[in-house]
Amino acid sequence: MNCIQLNQQADLIANTFSKLDLAKLVVALKGTGESLQNAVEVIDTIDARQGYTLHEAWEEVRAGESRLMAANDD
User: Do 40 and 7 contact (CB within 8 A), yes or no?
Assistant: First the structure.
């Protein structure tokens, strides 16, 4: 992704989410050790499913990780 595309994506994200949602995302990343990849997946989940809340999207992403870890343990 080039700089122009990255700026366009950042503008889209900023226009899609409230400041409160973005702040929660940053706190989750910093405070609970979530990865940037998880944050991107959360944003994609919200973008793909209209009406999803930030909390619902985090739960879905984390549930997917749990399934992945369980599959790797087998």
Answer: no
39 contacts 25 by C-beta, under 8 angstroms: yes
Measured from the Cβ of residue 74, the count of other Cβ atoms closer than 10 Å reads 4
- pLDDT value of residue 74: 53
CA distance 68 to 44: 18
| pLDDT bracket for residue 11 (50, 70, 90) | confident
- Compute the distance between CA of residue 73 and CA of residue 11 in angstroms, rounded to an integer: 40
Which pLDDT score is estimated for 6?
Answer: 67
SS3 5: helix
Q: Please give the structure tokens belonging to residue 73.
A: 């343990």
Give the list of residues 6+ apart from residue 33 with CB closer than 8 angstroms, or none: none
